[in-house]
Write a structure and sequence with these properties.
By secondary structure, the protein is α+β, with helices and mostly antiparallel strands. The chain folds into two domains: about 80 residues, Nucleic acid-binding proteins (OB fold (Dihydrolipoamide Acetyltransferase, E2P), Beta Barrel), CATH 2.40.50.140; about 170 residues, Recombination protein O, C-terminal domain (de novo design (two linked rop proteins)), CATH 1.20.1440. The protein is about 40% helix and about 25% strand. Helix 2 packs antiparallel against helix 3 and helix 2 packs parallel to helix 4. It starts with a strand and ends in a 5-residue tail after the last helix.
Amino acid sequence: MLRTKGEAILLRSKPSGENDLMVTLLHGTRGKVLLLARHALKSRKRFLGSLELFNHLEVEFTERAGVFFGILESSAVIDAFPLFRKDSVAFGQAAYACELVETATRAGEPCRDILDWLLDFLVTLNRIGPGTTWSRVAELKLLDHIGLAPGLDRCSVCGGELASRARQAYDVARGGVLCDVCSAGGTNHVSLGTLKTLSVIRKSDLSLCGRIRFSGKAAQEAKNFLGDFLRYHMNLDYPLKSKIFLEKLNPRFG
């Protein structure tokens, strides 16, 4: 039996029978972990009301070889991010970041850097509040952390400089934007202005990212551009539930 302690973020929870909860945590050394929280629905004293979505927790859990879920032994709240409980857009944007991370991570694989990034994202969103750029920030920063972010500044194939024109060719399978020589008649294009804004987001800390805005049609263009890379690299052939939720609230936030 493996016993583990440490910080975690609660990504997902659902009832298991009448008394229990099945929760998915992101843990620095154990990666994505599926755990049974016994009696969590029957008695709030069991986990002191800590098992709310997106909570930053101090946990202890056990796992046994050959069993696909572990047992959550204890859980205490470090940060409950109160804004997410009273602002539906902030809740949706937190949910989208967590759902992206859940899709990108695997059970048993250490992911301390992703846990730290997600925690920073939730802390910053809770402090600054929702905005129209947060979904793009979550997408690009996560792709960057898992080594799959698109090339934005130079040709993704040869490393050459891009032509100074309003629209640039890109190819998802080849890693990003392409120069004239390497594009060879490619049909996907994105504006230079959108690329520059995405490049600023990629290089900036989250406190600044929350204040960046896309102008005009660039917001939809950035959504389509990053969406292409997410679908290709993360096998997202369907919209995430949190994305649908945000789109119904207001397409600008999705």
